[in-house]
TrEMBL record:
InterPro entries: HATPase_C_sf (IPR036890), HATPase_dom (IPR003594), His_kinase_dom (IPR005467), PAS (IPR000014), PAS-like_dom_sf (IPR035965), Sensor_HK_TwoCompSys (IPR050482), Sig_transdc_His_kin_sub3_dim/P (IPR011712). Residues 366-385 are annotated as: Disordered. It comes from Geitlerinema calcuttense NRMC-F 0142. This is histidine kinase. The keyword Glycosyltransferase does not apply. It is an enzyme of class 2 (transferase). It catalyses: ATP + protein L-histidine = ADP + protein N-phospho-L-histidine. One of its GO terms (molecular function) is kinase activity.
């Protein structure tokens, strides 16, 4: 049933009041002699009976007016109360919208809304316009994939659209590639489905990380060279002096010569360990000899020290010429291989490079060790080493995944942009 309008209710309320007041007004007019015909009428024989009927009728007017006025009045006041509640709710909504609009417009990070059907920009804040260098009308013609240096694959039906979180490279209007960190969210407003991207410009953070990484690399090289040219040379000199003393003792046929021989063996083992540590800290010059030569040196040394077989599968069509890319990949492989040797009980490690369907290249480091137990671990190794792998992969515009199972070995998969 349709609710009566407020005007109709007000009309009913006024009518009820009027009906209630009719007897009073009639009595007042009659009492003041303003209705002369009533006086003449009173002189007629049946006047008393008629008056009784009028009095009865006035009671009816009074009762009907009271009921009608009360009902309409109650409904009017209920309508006013409901409208007041709606007004307060609408006021709260407006205040909330104003707060969110203020937050949206003043947020220092870029915030973009995309229509999940068309993948076009629906809304963007001022920080986003400043970051990408577009005007508002220009950017609303852009699709989501146009902001990525390497367009992501959303899969059939866009099921991977919510997996964009993380660090990647975005393109500005001028074509500049900028490192950004993305957080994604999804919300529905009415019949519209939106994807929200919060984009943080991490160029300054990357510069700071690069500076820290350069300092770390310089310290690695310094310590490596100090071990090789300092401690290593001193141990070699001690070994030569001990060897000369051993020969002198043997010429005199003294039994201490055998004991000295054992000491020389220990010194030579220490020399080998020192050289291995030095080469790990300061490997063969990647800029001068390339990544493959550095990996061959690293894996040969590890096989000799640990007895673990290390295989390298590197297709000829994959060339890694960028020294920065090569250095990051060397450290990723070094960290993953050392972890496998220390913790997995492996006897075989395989390092392989391969092309993927996307523009990225894939590096795999696999072992046949004990792996991770999903029942007791969350499937991802923790610690500084893993963070280092993730960081170095992100510097290459990629990511690191861990695939493992109990007694099924462990595989580190690194997707990276080979530029």
């Amino acid at each position: 049933m349709k609710k009566p309008s407020r005007n109709l209710l007000l009309a009913g309320f006024v009518t009820g009041i009027f009906l209630m007041s009719c007897p009073v007004w009639l009595y007042f007019l009659f009492d003041q002699g303003m209705l002369g015909f009533f006086h003449e009428w009173l002189a007629e024989p049946d006047t008393f009976a008629v008056l009784q009927k009028l009095i009865s009728l006035s009671y009816v007017f009074l009762a009907v007016g009271a009921v009608l006025g009360t009902l309409c009045g109650v409904m009017v006041f209920r309508t006013i109360a409901a409208d007041w509640e709606k007004f307060k709710a609408a006021t709260k909504v407006r205040e909330s919208e104003e707060k969110y609009r203020l937050l949206f417009s003043t947020e220092s990070d870029a915030i973009m809304l995309f229509d999940r059907q068309t993948l076009k920009v629906v809304e963007i804040n001022e920080s986003g316009l400043s970051l990408y260098g577009y005007g508002r009308e220009e950017i609303q013609k852009k699709k989501l994939s146009e902001f990525f240096a390497v367009p992501p694959s959303f899969g059939k039906g866009g099921e991977n659209m919510d997996d964009l979180s993380g660090e990647t490279l975005h393109l500005t209007k001028s074509g500049e590639e900028i490192p950004v960190e993305i957080s994604t969210g999804r919300f529905v407003a009415g019949d519209k489905d939106y994807l929200c991207l919060i984009v943080k410009d991490i160029r300054q953070r990357r510069q700071l990380e690069e500076a820290v990484l350069n300092i770390s690399n310089e310290e690695r090289h310094r310590i490596g060279h100090d071990l090789h040219d300092g401690l290593g040379q001193e141990l070699s000199a001690a070994s030569l002096m001990a060897k000369a003393l051993e020969n002198k003792l043997r010429r005199k046929s003294l039994p201490e010569a055998e004991e000295l021989k054992s000491l020389i063996t220990q010194i030579n083992n220490s020399i080998s360990t020192t050289r291995a540590i030095a080469h790990g800290l300061a490997p063969v010059s990647i800029e001068k000899y390339g990544l493959r030569a550095a990996l061959d040196k690293l894996l040969t040394g590890l096989e000799a020290q640990t007895g673990v077989t290390c295989d390298l599968d590197w297709p000829e069509e994959i060339a890694i010429d960028n020294p920065t890319t090569a250095t990051h990949l060397f450290r990723i492989i070094q960290e993953a291989v050392n972890n496998a040797i220390k913790h997995s009980g492996t006897s075989l490690i395989t390092i392989s490079f391969e092309r993927s369907d996307s523009p990225a290249t894939i590096l795999r480091i696999s072992d046949n060790g004990k792996g991770l137990d999903p029942a007791t671990e969350d499937g991802s190794p923790k610690g500084l080493g893993m963070k280092s792998l993730q960081y170095r992969a992100s510097r290459l515009g990629g990511r690191v995944e861990i695939v493992s199972g109990k007694d099924q070995g462990l595989t580190v998969i690194c997707h990276f942009q080979n530029t």
